[in-house]
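Open question from group meeting: does this chain pack into something compact, or does most of it stay loose? Before anyone orders reagents, we agreed to write out a predicted structure and look at it together. Recording both the input and the output here so the notebook holds the full record.
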Amino acid sequence: MLCAQHRAPIIPYGAGSSVEGSTLATEGGIAIDMSRMNRIKQLHHEDQDVVVEAGVTRLQLAEALAQSALFFSVDPGADATIGGMASTRASGTNTVRYGTIRENVLALEVLLADGSLIRTGSRARKSSSGYDLTRLFIGAEGTLGLITELTVRLHPRPQAISAAVCSFPTLRAAIETASTLLQEGLRVARVELLDAAAVEAVNRHSSMEHDVAPTLFFEFHGSAATVQERAQEAERCAGRFGGSSFRWSANEKEREQLWHARHNAYYAIRALNEAAIAVSTDICVPISSLADCIDETVEDRERSGLTAPLVGHVGDGNVHFIVLAAGESERAAAAAFHERLVERALRYDGTCSGEHGIGIGKRKFMRAEHGDAVEVMRRLKRELDPQGIFNPGKLLPED
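Structure tokens returned:
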């Protein structure tokens, strides 16, 4: 109420892991640090859900669940807060099987601009009652209200987990392997893609010895027999597309090393040129269009002469070209490359942001992607936040 009276901007701050400037106070104001709102309030084992305050981080929740038979599936890599993950509609490596944060939030508690505290949704697994306000605030990046509490889904911890790695002669072969596995109904928990440049960077950074070639990282969940069977099916499918050096393991230590290296791919790529800034792109397209979109982008990258290794969640069509740019000319070239990549993604009926959000970095693409729907977003913003105090200057484009 005081902020509304004085028209003081309110900027929610979680763990600060946003890559699109969602937490920057572009117009001054009050940054609300949510880190002390970190209580895990109610854990319901039988219903497989948990009620947490918005400042609880992914790893804090994982630690609290360590001795239970349940786990929280959304894993963006960073130790983000659950509230921040909901605000940016985060996802990560487990999305292909368990869904994004959007599919894993049942209810929210939200503070509105007039000082009222509302609850959206319930702990019921389905409802046809009223507007879906929960989904309205997920992905709003704190521009409509302040998320203070969340009820999130949990999943049964799998009896066994296996991980696998396979290299391919081309990126297209790797993508077609992943696409075929999904089309044939193989339950993959994770399927990640790295191009040769990214693999080489990961090898250096994490002291690994993967073949320097386009590579898929898989993970399978289920019983001991199931994960072995799925790994063998994946190996047969990869062989149809020229996959080689297929290696799989159910050893927990080996699996953790593999995913630790994948989660640190961004830092491995940055280490290739410490004098450069890293521009992390984040497009997502239908999986059927992914190979064409990547092929065109790789050709663009070669023409531009930029260093831009690729990492991506190929199971859901989300990829990141991480562009290293040192000096003004390379930064300008990186920005132009990014714009062409987004235009290409939209042409393939995709999106400018698969999981990083919009913040200030991608506002200029909102009109091209959403057209007149932007005006509906503006009307919602004006209705819920008439003075524009919640995270101003974010998400909506400046026309």
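Observations to bring back to the group:
The mean pLDDT is 94.
The two ends are 29 Å apart (CA to CA).
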